[in-house]
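Subject: for your reference before the review

Hello V.,

The reviewers asked for a structural picture of the protein, and I figured it would be easier to keep everything in one thread rather than splitting it across files. Below is the amino acid sequence we used in the manuscript, unchanged from the supplementary table.
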Amino acid sequence: MGKTYMDRRGRLVIPKELREKLDLKPEQGVSIEIRDGEIVLKPVLKVEEFAAELRGCVHGSRIKPGELKEIWGVEHAHHH
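And here is what came back from the structure prediction:
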């Protein structure tokens, strides 16, 4: 784990070693939620990565791809 501080505007810097470990890139989306009194940050997958992970997983599903993206918190590049 790393340690960081919040500035006056509420911004945090994720330590370099953690960014590298999670392969976080500049301008990459990160979702944030509160879980059991803790702040949880999760990298948001790029559309290409999301599609690659789903390939072959949803054959015959009644859930539309757009709904899956919403469920998983994936943003399309055209919707920023």
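For the response letter, the relevant points are probably these. The two ends are 30 Å apart (CA to CA). Residues 1-44 form a domain with the Pemi-like Protein 1; Chain: D fold (CATH 2.10.260.10).

Happy to draft the paragraph if you're swamped.

O.
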